[in-house]
Amino acid sequence: MQCHDQPRLFRGFLRLTAVFTSIAAATVGLSRIDVLGGPWLRAHPYWIAAAILFTAIVPLVQLAVSERGDRAARKRLELENSVQVALASALVLLVNKGADWEKTGVQAFVLKRRWSGWRLRQEHVRLAKVRIAYVRASGIRWTRGKGAIGRCWATNSPQYIDVDCHFAQYAGYDAYRWSTLSEDERIGLSFEDFQQLEGKYGTVAAMPITTHDGRYIGCVTADAPPGADLPREEVFDALEIAAGVVNELLPR
Amino acid sequence: MAEWFWRSSEANDTQSRRVAAPKADVSREYLEIMRQLNAPPAVIKAAERATEQRAPAPEKD
Question: What does the H/E/C string look like for A142-160?
Fold first, then answer.
């Protein structure tokens, strides 16, 4: 599957080649005049040959990389559309079983290797989401052990957490009191995460997507805000099927 | 043990205890919804494969 980092890599490649192409073009141009290092360049023709070669090859490489990027983007979009249908079906199934159609959201995440500083690490990347109401993205990275999604990854098992009920007992906690709680009590969240998520979610459920040999590769989640019903048995049924479908849709 | 962990564990137990017939019903309902949503044939095929592969749950004790 294509990585979401590709457009960023491609933009970096374009910037780099633009800088080197400018240098190469300047080198070729300067070699024709008698000022600004022109005589030095004529005395070192290998530099001029390298610059000519560079300016000739770069557009072809850019074309090839750009076409590859377009193909990858198309595949990504196709996958996102297919996963969205799978999630929408799960949401309708949930609504038929009593979930709030306006407030319930269903999402699919897969693990990806991404650069974090100088380290290559795995993290969840969202494939698609389906939700009628607009909900601002939290921006939190659901690392291993953090929140329902992180717990789903860490334990490779379904999770159902009444976040609103669980965190109600810690309402008004400051950073110090939060730090005295155990990892389980904090559900792996930092104090900043806790502040950001307070009141946003009522219930969150996560179902792992696993390979046939049981390896965790991502999860499908459902969430509802405080006060909205998200029946547990039904949510697990819907997410289990959706996780299987997403697994089937992912490229091998 | 924290309450959330207890709930997760209970969720696992509940999953393994579920009986086969309701699972099949839910799978059928899911596929029906997918067809009603005009899902592309490739997605419906993937859903059919996924629902076939859903392991039949053990009998209730």
Answer: CCCCCHHHHHHHHHCCCEE
Q: What is the token pair recorded at A230?
A: 């998200």
For the stretch A90-141, pLDDT in tens is 999 999 988 888 889 999 999 998 877 788 889 899 999 999 888 877 888 8
Q: Evaluate whether residue A107 is within a structural domain.
A: yes
Quick check: A55 contacting B, CB < 8 Å? Answer: no
Please report whether residue A205 resides in a domain.
yes
Q: Which chain A residue is nearest to residue B34, measuring alpha carbons?
A: A89
Residues B48 and B28: beta-carbon distance below 8 Å: no
Q: Which of A 105-164 lie inside 8 A of B, CB atoms?
A: 151, 155, 157-162
Whether residues A52 and A152 share a domain: the answer is: no
CB-CB under 8 Å, B47 with A89: yes
Q: Clarify whether residues A58 and A95 are in a common domain.
A: no
Q: What is the reported pTM?
A: 0.76
Confirm whether A245 is domain-assigned: yes
Domain residue limits at A54 = 6-70
| CA-closest candidate to residue B29, choices A20, A48, A92 | A92
